[in-house]
Each structure stands twice: as C-alpha cells, then as structure tokens.
Amino acid sequence: MPMSKGFANHRLTLLSLGVVACFMAVGVRLVYLQVVDRDELLRFVDKARRQIVIEHARRGAILDARGNLLATSRSELTVAVDAWALADFLAAEKNPARRARKTAEEQAKRITLAALLGLPLAEVEKAFIPGLRPIKPEADKRDGKVDGLTKDRWVKLREGISEATYDRIEALNVRGLTAERVYRRVYPGNELAAHLLGFVNKEGAAAAGVESKFDLYLKGEDGWIESEKDGARREMAQFRSREVPVQDGHDVVLTIDSVVQHMIENELRGIGAKYQPKFATIIVSDPMSGRILGMANYPSFNLNEYNKAPLDVQRNRAITDQIEPGSVFKIVAAGAALDQGLVTPLTGFDCSNPLVNYKGRDLKLPKEDHDFGRLTVAEIVSHSSNRGAAQLAMLMGEQRFYDYAQKFGFGQRTGFQLGGEERGMLASPKHWDGLTITRMPMGHAVAATPLQMHMAMSAVANGGVLLRPQIIQEIRDAEGKVTQTFGPERVGQVLKPSTSALLAQLLHGVVGPEGTGAGFDVPGFEIAAKTGTTQKIIDGRYVTTHHVGSFVGFFPASRPEVVLTVIVDDARVPGGSNYGRAVAAPVFHRLAEQLVQYLDIKPVQPATRNLLAMTGGAR
Amino acid sequence: MKPPPANANINRLIVLSLLLLVFSGTLGLGAVWVRQEISAIANRSRALEAQIADVERGLDEINVLVAEAVNPDALLRQNEVMRLGLVSPQEAQVRRVDGSPELRLATKRNREIFNLATAAVGDHAPEFRIVTASLR
Questions:
Q1: Omega cis (within 30) before A310
Q2: 3-state DSSP call for residue A119?
Q3: Residue B52 touches chain A, beta carbons under 8 Å
Q4: Which of A85, A114, A276, A311 gives A121 a disulfide partner, CB atoms 3.0 to 4.6 angstroms apart?
C-alpha cells in the first residue's frame, strides 16, 4: 500500500528531531564535561594519568692518560617483592585446580630465584607472604580502612644485582617480583689511585678527589618527560607533552698512567709490609710539563669498599701532610748561591768548625753525621753537609735565602687541581731567631708537603722553572669530543737554566761513590737526587729514633724525563736507622729501573751528557 | 519548468546530510587512524629508546669487565695463574739500536742469506728469500 505524503513527512520530521535531539544531548554532555565539571575532571585525570618521568644522567667516567677506565658507572638492580600482587593474581583464578597448579609453578620459580639471588629459599619464601606495614593514620586511606596499616608492596630481597643476573631473573617471570635500577660507581682498579680519584657514596654524593672537585663536569644533568600513563602504569608515549633531554656527564681524563701508578703502589705496599711506617708517599711526574704520572700514599684503601676505610686512611697525604723537608731543602741553599754567582761548584768551605761568625756574632752550626773537613759546594751537596749548607745560606743573607725558598714554592700552595692541599710553613726573616739561618738550610724550621718538595726538585730538573702540578689532562663530553684541555702552567723562574743544569750535575754526585746515595745510581741514566732524613718532633723535642726519610730526584740528570719522590714517615727499622738512604733510596732505585723500561727512557751517552749539561738540559 | 516537489528537497537534504555524515565519519576515522599511528610510532620509538638504553647499559657493563681484566693487578695475577713467567726487562737485557729496527732486522736477515749463499756455492744453487716491503 502506497505511503501517504503527509505520513512520510511526519516520519522524516520525527527522525530529524530525533537526530537533532541526540546531537543536542551529546552537546549538553560535552558542555557538562568540558565546562561544568572541567576542573574536577582535570584534577582526576592529572592525578590518575599524568606522570613526570625523570631520566637520570649517566655520570661521566674518569680515565688515565692512556684511556684506561679508572672510574665508571654501572647499572645495578635492587630486587623486591610485592607479595600482594601474587596473592591478587592467584585469587583471580576461580578454578581451584588451576589455582593450585599456578601456585605450584610460582613456588618452583622461587627455588630458581633464590639460587640466582644467592639467598636461602626460606628468606625468599618469607618475602612472598603478604604482609602489612604501619603507616601514619592520617595518610591511611589506601585500603579503605583507617587502622594505621597498609599493604606492604615493597619487601627488598637483594640489592646490587647485575644486569646479566637480572636478565635471567626476569626470564623466570616470577609474579610479584619488582626491581629498581640504580647507577653505582665502580672503580675497576680497586685501590688504584684511590687518593686521587675519591669516591661517590651510596647516596650519590661525590666525597673526595677528582670525583668531588670535578663533580660539576662528571654528574651531567638529569632529564625529564611529562607524559601520561595507562592503567598498567606504562607510559603512553603519544601523550608526551614536554621533554627535557638528559645530558650525560663529561669524562675527565687524568695525566696519570695506570701502569706507573700501579708500580708505585706496589712499592708502597712493599714499604708498608717491610717498615710499617706512619705513612709513605711516592710521586712521579714529567718535569717539563708538570704532569703527574703517578701519586700514591700508604696506607691506602679500596675505593669499592670506601666505607670500610677510616677517614685517616682516605687522606691524600702527598698534599695534606706537612713534614720538615730535611736535607732535600739543601737544593735551595746550593741552587740560590750558585744562581747568585756567589760560589762555584769548586768553592770551598770549612765544615769542621762548629762555630762561625755571622754579622759579628758567633753562631753555633748544626751537627754533622760525619766529620768533614773542607768541602767544596759540590761535596756539600753530595755529602749533604749541614754546616756547608748553613754557610751557603749565610753567604746570601736571610732575605735572599728566604726569597729563593719562596721562589722554589715553599710556604705556598702548589695549585694542585684537586685542592685540599696545605700551604706548608715558611716564616719570613723577621720571625726568625738567631739560629734559623743555620738550621733552615738543612730543612729544619720549615714545613712542606711532599708535593711541594717534589715540585721544587722538578724546577731544578726542567731548567729552573717552577710549574703548577697537572693532574687533569682534558675533559671530554659524552660523545668523546674534547671540550677543555689543561696545559703546563708556569708559576715562575726559580733558577737560571745554566744554574739548574749545574745543580743537576751536583745532585748526580749524590749517587756517586762518596755521596749519601752511593750505590743507587742506574748506570747510563744519571740519577740526580737528594737524600733527606729529618728527626721527628715528639713532645716538642727532636728525637733520634723517629725519622722521616726521603729521596727526591730525577733522571737522567742532563736530560731529565722523570722526577721521582719517595718519602717514608717513621719507618720501623731495627736499630732505628730509618734514614732516607736506607728506606727511601732503594725504592727510588727500583722504581727508576722500572720506569726507564716502561717509559722507554734512552740512556745518556757521555758526549751527549756534556753537551746537554752545557745547554742547561733544555729540550 | 515545473518546480521540484517539496519532498525532493527533503530527500536532497537527507542525502546531503548522509554525505556530510559519511564525510565527517571518514574524517573522524582518519583522525582516529592517524592518532593510532602516532601512538604506535611513539610507543615503537619508546621501545627503541629503551633498547638503546639497554645496549648502552650492556656496553657499560662490558667496559667495566674489560677495565677489570686489564687492570695491572689482574694482569699480574693472570701471569701467575697461567704460569707465563712474564717479567719486565732489565736494562742489561736491552740492546738499544739507532735508526729503524725493522731495517736492521731486514739487513741482518739478508746478511744471513747471502752468507749462506756464499758458503753454498759449488754444491747447489743458493736459496734466496724475498724481503718484503713490510720489513723495510
């Protein structure tokens, strides 16, 4: 039957009205959602879905001059258990048979898990029993009851799990197992360069050394992502709204050489075992650039177990401890007198007389270890004559001698890049008593750090220039591009190049047949060094049984390539002969032999020696 | 010309509405498809980022292992464990040469060959070895 036109129109109108009504309903709902309830809904969405994910920057590495890793960061995992997640998973299974099967499967996984974690099975099983933990009542709204207890969803099982082990754990797919990834600082060399590197503690705070001083470069900048998460708390990457990229830390490259560092640490271990000193320090550097190739102290500690080391052991004594430099300080008197042209190596002094007239007063000269008669300047250096050194200083007068001591860097910080160093002690002449001019030239009434003594000797080796010690070679960004380099820094001219070359030859005499370091030369490599033995002050008095023994020098004398300092404080030697010659010189000698081979130092031919000596040893 | 009937206009309106619905529906579906693609790509790139991070972590781990293995102490231990007996040379054992050691070795070898050749003349033809460029 044909439909009437009016009926069709009526139905169309109804349909149109229906469609319009539907659209209007949708519109009204939209207005309700977007305008009326907007704030409340936004708050809810923000809370439920928005998240800010922080991406931690990877801390830069510390490398030696040859690119060996000294400190780096490794990711480790802390494995924990959410026992309630397992309980919920099992409760969701309504079929008792299947639930029993799943329970048995999970138990079997836990046996393997316990083995991988290295924990007793009972401990692991205990962690998987759902428990409650106390919570502040005002914050207790999580489980609907306000009873001061909440579900404990984080029971730590074990920390420090490696990525490889965690991969195997993850493959087990244990229900309720969670993990948190953390970056831990690792020191592959354990004790290697411990006092230089410093460490980063468990809270991530840099505590000492390079780690602390260059923390700004090493730590990098954390990044963050503002985004949304789904019901399973996974990030929905498509809703990332803001993103600040992470900037990994820079790498710091040191001037030290791991092999040289290992050599000196090995020797220090030997010193420790043999003499049980209060402390010992060895420093090796390149005299021409001031680059430290190795610096170590005894006692030392394992950087990976820093928490077991007492604070006293963690100190870099090469820069923090002050000692009387003893006879090593005689390079100041000899160098200054030669530099001023007041004496030549052949100028003679009467070193037998205990009294000498100085500015109209008779001054008592210090005692000698041996009875000397008349000594030339060369012999004063090689025999380490206290009276000779005193007379050289008196020849110059207080002020000039003091000025030279200052120029050698005593009484002021060397500018070591890792900081924390002591200034030493060098009183100005107005504070000297009548005897200081006789005692200071032999290294009494003055205090210096081992590094100050080392750099002073370095100035003799390199043509008379005092350099700032360099421990940082360069800084590289995360892509390996060099962003900053550190070159040699000149502090001042101490001696004329010709004087320093002359003094180097005199210091070579120390290891000659008549010298205090006789027998410690390395043939062909012209060891130039100075022995030092200082009586320690105990209860305000110098004692004859406790000494600081030192041997500071360089080689080859006419073409110096290495400066080496060995200092042993209060070595326990039978008979008390803990002199520099006895405890420090043998170590110097052994190290020199090793360094010659490792650094490929060529022996000096006699003809070259004379030529280089004449030109001041300048390269 | 006769004017179109009234319901023809309504029919046209309905057709246009349907077309509009189809068009807007297509647009809507397109938008959904694009959003879906964006989501998929974003998630894929997030997964790749995670993979890269995993690889970097693995590299760090390997670097640590390498550093631990080449640490002088570890090498010395290996020397003992493997009974290699490697020691640093002493100066007395070292013969220092001027100039290129490769050239010296080549000269030495050639001298040996020719001396051998001279000694062998008369019996049979001398044996020559070729000194390659790598030895120069």
A1: no
A2: coil
A3: no
A4: A114
